[in-house]
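Record format v2
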Amino acid sequence: MNRTGFLYDERYKLHLTGDYHPEVPDRLTCVYRGIQEAGLLASLIRIEASRADMKWIELVHDGRYIQRFEAACLSGKRMFDSPDNQMCYDTYATALLAVGGILDVAGRLMEGQLDNAFCAVRPPGHHAEAANAMGFCYFNNVAIAARYLQNQWGIDRIGIVDFDVHHGNGTQHIFEQDPTVYYYSIHEHPSFAYPGTGREFEHGKNSGNGYTKNSPVLPGQGDDEYRRLIEKDLIPAFEEFKPEVILVSVGFDAHMDDDMSDIKLSTEGFSWIMQRVVELGRQHSRGRIISILEGGYSLKRLPELAANHVKILLNAQIS
Amino acid sequence: MFVSRSMTRKVITVDPEKSVFEAQELMAKNSIRHLPVIDANQKLVGIVTDRDIRSAMPYNFIKDSCSQEQREQICALTVKDIMTRDPLSISPAYTIQDALLMIQNSKVGALPVVDDNGKLSGILSVRDLLRAFINVLGIGEPGTLLCILVKEEVGQLKKIVDAITEENISFGSVLVARYWDENKRAVFTYLLTQNVAHVKKKLDNMGFTLLDPMEWYLDQLPKNGPSPKSTE
């Protein structure tokens, strides 16, 4: 069994989003419960949140944006940049704890204490742009992790796999001109789903051209279509790119029982995807995979989905 | 809504005496397909398209297999020999709707815009219209599209807009498509949010039908009718 890190902290529940908002603290309760009930907690290496050093966040986000976010929170505003981003006094501090925890995990992975890890954080990050908050996201967790690995640990090539049902516009825009970070996303087609980006013809810009790939999926599709697209688009791309570390934006909202999308992935479908990512990790990245929670709102399905996800990381063949 | 606001003002034009090859060069260099032809007084006298130019050159000329005499004839061709004289044009005071209908009826790809004095003041192409409609549809702004089937009855849209507004959601656009079903219309609401699950449930509880996204269309085709055919 692998030394799999599990980043979890009750403080990630301090970010409150108010009524009728799907991105709620209970999501993490379900994730934790699923892992606990599957008897996996004892096998995992528990890591708690820590506050991020601002210098890493500034590698991705505009300084003025960070100040604006902090000021909005501390002055008691309940909304930031868009009505999707409901927040509370503790949102800024929670977002810093999410980033800090992930960077701690990344550091331990590079020091050889961990083989791979799952980071159950809130708020999520992949919609956050360099200078504005969007779609429940404030700091782009996965993007900051990528920059940290490059700057602190000298990693040259990072591969990001994003299978949240929504396109990670923030992550794409942050790296679209950068050939050192390959961003792959599979998501519901943007003509039918938020945020309206992630079309097939978006494949990077300038020197980053060819280092972004999007696989839009039509409404109503599920396991078969995901299998087909991942084999066709992701596998050959990463076989050529050979990422040294793989970061996963894991969203569970493409599940058929999740009402945030029209995509109908089954629980087994999610396992298949992660299994395939783990195989890529074994081939190219010495098994180094850090998965970071994005969306996933079905409180009924989150326990099993999180448990299966962690099980795959624990049992992955890494060499 | 006026043509003057959407047209291209810096028009690339050509002199009627220029050779066909020069016209072709101008189009290729500027990635355009329509060249208004103007006289010395800036008056519009014709229009030449990439198709006019292709038709003027026989296949064997391109294949480099025609006679010397034929070659000379083709090389001597000028814009005025192949242009459409007195082309359809519009006034800058026309509306976008006027232009859309004219383009659809006349099957042209662009309309020169001529002011009251007969001088060329711009050109409006299908591309300019597309830009306007990309803006109207709100493509590019983050949001989620819903399609709600409603009875053709006064007050339906108000109910939908009220229900969505109560959720504190802003609209990127609202479109109403006709000819869905008899007595029915499809309302497309583009909502500037990711958070639509709750409002979808609410609309459903109000008795509205939310259409399966794979069944959506914006065109006027009958629901089970023939698939769209190109008019080219």
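The domain at 139-215 of chain B is CATH 3.30.70.260 (Alpha-Beta Plaits).
Residues 226-232 of chain B have pLDDT under 50 and may be disordered.
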